[in-house]
């Protein structure tokens, strides 16, 4: 099987590529990645001689057409993925997440290629503490420029499946954690602050809830959908990992033997979504998927170890990332 993986130098995509090379020697992987600030070829070093890497933009229609003509399936991870960046400058999100997905859909339509679209639970907006978790029947109601562009791309995929018969599936996953995640994101940012002897930075009071899943569990689910998912159908991916941000910070502080109150409250994110939670019944019952990382605390401890042991991977990004947060106006709050 020939597989084209877009965004394969990013966090989830690179973990997907390494997992695929290890578990499925029969799959020939080509990565298409623009190597934006979020892409890192070093995340693929261990498999570099077993894959083909193409540096390019998913919105480049000629390149996408050429690569799609030579593949059996596309797994589409490439995106602008960070909410805070989408608030500072939404344009790259419109261009990559909407126009880029459109270019891929036109190519798979032309060549009759199987397509899997990797999306997010944020397309559903947020929940109150009393709401039931998101399911495949929850209406779309995105809050941020990031989630609005992901929702737009999902709707394009659905339309191309229905109107043009494209063999497309979608998955909407909750927050991932694990190795090789950019230091702009919540968990790696706090781990690397702690490694540097700094205080973690919590947005507002930290009562927002995310439904954490290990990146390897997400990627096993993507394979389950790719192999056994029904065309035109969406699958929600989550591992019952609901935890509020304050608790995550305190779990990390404990890993570093620091006091539970040794952190800063900083400026909250505008429009901050309160709670995400996933009901993954369809994925579990129809496709037989179960998560392997049942314990978030253990997965978090393994992630801390990874960042301690792989400083050379993240160090070049740290200072610039913190600088960007400062320039965006992040301030310590007197709480
Ligand atoms: P990431 O930001 O770490 O990686 C994105 C990758 O896409 C990078 O390698 C980047 O270089 C590449 N890319 C960006 N624009 C491109 C373009 N125009 N052409 C080609 N490549 C381009 O993102 P991630 O966290 O790995 O997320 C991957 C996908 O999973 C995204 O679609 C995201 O919406 C979705 N998702 C992420 C999470 C999460 O918790 N991180 C959860 C659910 C869904
Ligand atoms: O739910 C899936 C989504 O999860 C994905 O679609 C996105 O690509 C991914 O980035 C993630 O979005 P979030 O906005 O939830 O993730 P982030 O890591 O930015 O923040 C997680 C929570 O932590 C959120 O409530 C904001 C908070 N936070 C974040 C940072 C960076 C802090 O309290 N402090 C911080 O320094």
Automatic annotation (TrEMBL):
Signal peptide: none
Enzyme Commission number(s) from the entry: 4.2.1.46
Known cofactor(s): NAD(+)
InterPro entries from the UniProt entry: dTDP_Gluc_deHydtase (IPR005888), NAD(P)-bd_dom (IPR016040), NAD(P)-bd_dom_sf (IPR036291)
Single GO molecular function: dTDP-glucose 4,6-dehydratase activity
Keywords: Lyase, NAD
Phosphoprotein as UniProt keyword: no
Domain NAD(P)-binding, chain residue ranges per copy: 4-298
Catalytic class of the enzyme: lyase
Catalytic activity: dTDP-alpha-D-glucose = dTDP-4-dehydro-6-deoxy-alpha-D-glucose + H2O
Source domain of life: Bacteria
Stated family: Belongs to the NAD(P)-dependent epimerase/dehydratase family. dTDP-glucose dehydratase subfamily.
Descriptive protein name: dTDP-glucose 4,6-dehydratase
Species of provenance: Nocardia jiangsuensis
Classification lineage: Bacteria, Bacillati, Actinomycetota, Actinomycetes, Mycobacteriales
């Amino acid at each position: 099987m020939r597989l084209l993986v877009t965004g394969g130098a990013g966090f989830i995509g690179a973990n997907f590529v390494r997992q695929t090379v290890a578990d499925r020697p029969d799959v020939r992987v080509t990565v298409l990645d623009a190597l934006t600030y979020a892409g890192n070829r070093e995340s693929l070093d261990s498999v570099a001689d077993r894959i083909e890497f193409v540096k390019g933009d998913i919105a480049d229609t000629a390149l996408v057409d050429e690569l799609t003509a030579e593949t059996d399936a596309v797994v589409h991870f490439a995106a602008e993925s960070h909410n805070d960046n989408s608030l500072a400058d939404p344009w790259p999100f419109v261009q990559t997440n909407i126009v880029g997905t459109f270019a891929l859909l036109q190519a798979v339509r032309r060549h009759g290629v199987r397509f899997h679209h990797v999306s997010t639970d944020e397309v559903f907006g947020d929940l109150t503490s009393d709401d039931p978790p998101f399911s495949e029947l929850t209406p779309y109601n995105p809050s941020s420029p990031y989630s609005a562009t992901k929702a737009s791309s999902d709707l394009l995929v659905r339309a191309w499946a229905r109107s043009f018969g494209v063999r497309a599936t979608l998955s909407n996953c909750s927050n991932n954690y694990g190795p090789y995640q950019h230091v702009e994101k919540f968990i790696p940012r706090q781990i690397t602050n702690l490694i540097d002897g700094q205080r973690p930075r919590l947005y507002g009071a930290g009562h927002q809830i995310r439904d954490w899943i290990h990146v390897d569990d997400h990627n096993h689910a993507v394979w389950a959908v790719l192999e056994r998912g029904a065309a035109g159908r969406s699958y929600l991916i989550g591992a019952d990992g609901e935890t509020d941000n304050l608790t995550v910070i305190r779990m990390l502080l404990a890993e570093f033997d620091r006091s539970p109150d040794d952190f800063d409250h900083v400026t909250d994110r505008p429009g901050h979504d309160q709670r995400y939670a996933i009901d993954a019944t369809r994925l579990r019952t129809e496709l037989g998927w179960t998560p392997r990382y049942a314990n978030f605390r253990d997965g978090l401890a393994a992630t801390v170890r990874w960042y301690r042991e792989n400083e050379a991977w993240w160090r070049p990004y740290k200072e610039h990332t913190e600088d960007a947060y400062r320039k965006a106006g992040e301030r310590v709050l007197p709480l």
